[in-house]
Amino acid sequence: MNAAAVVVEDDDELRRHLNPEYRQEDGSYSLAAYKTSNMSLDLCRLRELDVSVASRGGKWGMSQFLAKVPRASGLVVNYDPIKDDPHDADNEAHCLIPGRVNNSQAKKMREAATVVYDPKPE
Amino acid sequence: MNDNFKGLSTGLHVIEARAGITRARSAPKTAATAITIALGIAPAAAAAAPHAYGIRLKGETAQASSSLRYAGLLARVLEISRLPDGWDGRGSKRPSNDAVLHAREIVRRFSNAVPDDWKGSAPLVAPLAPAGFQFEWKNGVRELYVACNEDGTLSFLESTPRADKEYDADMDALNPALKRFIAG
């Protein structure tokens, strides 16, 4: 797919993986899940949930929120497909929030996010 | 068993499990010694400078509950510090030494700052990609977030219904922030 042809709209849903290390004993997920540097996301309309889940081995949670949420707090959301990368599998739905996310921005994303896949901890 | 460690033996099983520690059934061990091992602290070092590790001695007035809270938090820090490179995918690394030191110091200061009869809960502790720690406290409507970043810096967020206050600072800012948070 031509990267230039894909524009991430404000109302596009983005999917964030939730590492099991972020899952707290009360079942909530830490702010840290949204506070990484150079955050990777999937553009939902280009990737089904089960494909995202399978890409993380089925053991990681998934949440979704609208692209306008990080943008409203000053972050940039770029379409950033992965192809022929020696370190990562191809992912035409990949998006990137470049730079470091601060606590406030992460909090807004967590508040807006809906957990759509939440595997039980082992 | 030392009175100051009453109740720790039951909590210790949880701590050891979270830290991935197993021990021989037959190994006789005092609770205090077991805790130092569970936390990855050499018993000799803990004996030489117990307060540096937040270990309270016989005759001190600490409640077992606060010691348990402290030990549990340190065990979680230890658990996170053992994550491998790549734990959160490409670019993530095991926590940096600076971040581990800061995380331990945050646990120590929180343990010292909180009254023994405080009803609030202990902070949630999570790894922070690429190589740090995240602490999250909630006390009613007041929230406090502290990130130990991989480069040794700290990022704070004090949140109330009226406003969020975000800032970067050094460890000196922690005690005032904890004081405001605990006061509610």
Explain this structure to me?
- The complex is a heterodimer of chains A (122) and B (184).
- By secondary structure, chain A is α+β, with helices and mostly antiparallel strands.
- Chain A has one domain (8-117).
- Helix content of chain A is 18%, strand content 26%.
- Chain A has a 6-stranded antiparallel beta sheet, sandwiched between helices.
- The termini of chain A are far apart.
- Chain B has one domain (8-183).
- Helix content of chain B is 38%, strand content 17%.
- In chain B, strand 2 (132-139) and strand 3 (142-148) form a beta hairpin.
- In chain B, helix 1 packs parallel to helix 2.
- Chain A binds chain B through residues 17, 19, 21-22, 24, 28, 30-33, 35-38, 40, 87-88, 102-104, 107, and chain B through 80, 83, 87-92, 124, 126-130, 134, 136, 145, 147, 155-157, 159, 164, 166.
Chains forming the largest contact? A-B, 21 and 24 residues
Shape of chain B: globular
Read across the widest sheet of chain B, the strand sequence of neighbours is 1-2-3-4-5
H/E element sequence of chain A: EEHEHEEHE
The portion of residues forming beta strands of chain B comes to: 15-25%
Q: What is the oligomer described by this structure?
A: heterodimer
Gross morphology of chain A is globular
Q: What is the arithmetic mean of pLDDT of chain B?
A: 74
Average pLDDT reading of chain A: 93
| Helix-and-strand structural type of chain B | alpha+beta
Number of domains of chain A: 1
**Count of strand segments of chain A:** 6
Classify the beta-strand content of chain A into a percent band. Answer: 25-35%
Helical residue percent of chain B? Answer: 25-40%
Radius of gyration of chain B: 17 Å
Secondary structure class of chain A reads alpha+beta
